[in-house]
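Hi there, hope your week has been kind to you so far. Thanks so much in advance, here it is:
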Amino acid sequence: MKFTSPTIEYCRRQFPALSRRIGNFSAAFLDGPGGTQVPHRVIEAISNYLAHMNANHGGLFATSRESDAMLDRAQLAFAEFLGTDDPQTVVFGQNMTSLTFALSRSLAKTWQPGDEVIVTKLDHDANVSPWVLAARDVGATVRFVPLRPEDGTLDLDAFRELLSPKTRLVAVGCASNATGTVNPVRDITDWAHQVGALVFLDAVHYAPHALIDVQQIGCDFLACSAYKFFGPHLGILWGRRRLLDELEAYKVRPAPSASPEKWMTGTQNHEAIAGALAAVEYLADLGRTLAANDSLPLRAALREAYQEIALYERSLATRLLAGLAQMPEIKVWGITQPERSAERVATISFTHERFTAAQMAEQLAQAGFFTWHGNYYALNFTETMGLEPDGMLRVGLLHYNTQTEVERLLEALHGLRS
């Protein structure tokens, strides 16, 4: 593993937020699943855009031309980030939820009563409600993939039984924001395509931990959010060019009718796109540093970065899971076996016999730990597993977190007080 102490410190120095202290404690940012911190270059890119090229799209003057050139670079970079060779299939928007609602309305115009849509009990509600509401509007039927109660993973046998020639869309997450489970989306996509269904993937929680490859997966649509992988608040949607061109988009009349412009309604958040481009460049430069090769092309550099990120985060998660296993009052929800570590990312949620998730989060916050409590919009999961209304405490580990922070967290959990 190339994530040695000097490499970790190299990463941490780039994130100004990580120097924060809470009283006598160094802040431990374990809240990444709700939104990651950003490196200096992201902050500087946003500031530079607003200071030097702040303009609307399509003008014939200097700042507009410079702004459009930046947007073109971002389109190219995100094509590489997502694993497509067609930059015109990358759409920017307010956030993943807004983009998904817009797409669901367009797709629903191709459905009719008797058609079926499949969603899951594991997903964030942003990949459930848009499809449930769209199906309701046209009289289509929604089917839910159930959970396996022993580990909270999707019941894939049940999923295959739900598929039929009536299935029009399958919506599933690449990784669970509640339990960290990584779903076998390539297999799911293949099974869905066998019955003629389209596949929409939510990669919001997957993107900080693993390299996205839409061509390898074979899906039809995929969405993610830059603020979950070290960028600003911005949503990104990828879709097959044929589908983006054929589907009717809800937009103002003068807007272009070709992809991707027809899907980017109104003036985009140009400064956020500049920041998101800087986040991708941060990850690529991390990969070049790890490979000791400054000339690595963007996609190759991203691959190097994510390979090492996965190994390092797995080491953090393995230690945390081992420590939690020594605390009989704590139950981890999701995959816990070390031999199944490749089936999850380093997001770990648990409950305590004596303390609610909010009580744990509050005590940990006083000791400098930033964690999330509740259901994190994975409402179907917490309802199915009987975890409402308290939910779980969620710890999200990223490549800027450290083994020291994990050990401090375990010590703090041992010291929880009534």
In short: Residues 56 and 267 are 7 Å apart (CA to CA).
